[in-house]
From TrEMBL:
Organism, scientific name: Streptomyces lividans 1326
Segments of this protein annotated with the region Disordered: 1-28
Keyword Hydrolase: yes
InterPro entries: Pep_tRNA_hydro_II_dom_sf, PTH2
SUPFAM superfamilies: Peptidyl-tRNA hydrolase II
Family from the record: Belongs to the PTH2 family.
Protein name: peptidyl-tRNA hydrolase
Length: 249
């Protein structure tokens, strides 16, 4: 829509061959993969929007930090192929029996305050498992019953563009992109510390007055390729990790 840190998958090279750049590049010539994320949305008890976004971002980090995703791990080849091409994430929804079928497939379920998101190893763009392919992308519009509290400034914050109107599914994928960019820029020790702490993070909409400063301050910025919902090149998320703040002049 949407790991052993001591032996990480090599980070993709920076722009101009960015996995998020809107213009075609070498990454478009590689076989294309997608990281599936499925959010559980039961009719009687849907998750709150902010918790779903935060849980999706943590799910991406859990996948990247899992030992099966690196070295000779069972998912390592798929993760490498995915990171060599465009970085695509798609969020679908499930409930009831659909969710139970999704849970039976290889993957990891990450539980937030009231959200559940299952992340799966990357699959070919046109090769989704049947039980995931049949799930709907639409219907992931979620709300926050109450405004989220202020983000903890000592912990990572994924700042959303205040000028963009994204569905919850799209925003979940973008938050996952931001978390992934932060992960790539951290040292091995910083990745380990973040993982061992349980990947604490917040997702918040930036104050419009701060947005330009956030996008020009040297922090990782997600620029969407424009496949769905928003225009190509739109800045969607800034990944504000304390370790990356300290690394900036």
């Amino acid at each position: 829509m949407s790991n052993d840190p001591t032996t990480p998958v090599p980070a993709p090279v920076p722009a101009p061959d960015s996995p998020f750049r809107p213009e075609p590049g070498d990454r478009d010539l590689a076989p294309q993969f997608v990281l599936p994320l499925v959010v559980r949305i039961e009719r009687a008890a849907p998750p709150s929007r902010t918790d779903a976004l935060e849980t999706a971002a943590r799910a991406v980090l859990v996948m990247l930090g899992d030992e099966r995703s690196t070295g000779d791990g069972a998912w390592a080849r798929a993760v490498r192929d995915w990171q060599d091409a465009r970085i695509r994430k798609v969020v679908r929804r499930a409930r009831g029996a659909e969710w139970r079928r999704a849970e039976a497939l290889p993957g990891i379920t990450v539980i937030g305050k009231n959200a559940e998101v299952r992340v799966f190893p990357p699959v070919p763009l046109d090769g989704w498992p049947k039980d995931l392919a049949r799930l709907q992308v639409s219907g992931t519009d979620l709300d926050d019953p109450e405004p989220p509290v202020d983000a903890d400034p000592t912990a990572p914050v994924l700042w959303l563009n205040p000028d963009l109107d994204m569905s919850a599914g799209k925003a979940m994928a973008q938050a996952g992109h931001g978390a992934q960019l932060a992960w790539w820029e951290l040292s091995d020790a910083e990745r380990t510390a973040w993982r061992d702490a349980g990947f604490p993070l917040s997702v918040r909409t930036a104050d419009p007055a701060r947005w330009t400063g956030l996008t020009t301050g040297g922090l990782p910025v997600v620029r969407d390729a424009g496949f769905t919902e928003i225009a190509p090149g739109s800045c969607t998320v800034v990944a504000d990790h304390p370790a990356l703040r300290r690394a900036r002049p």
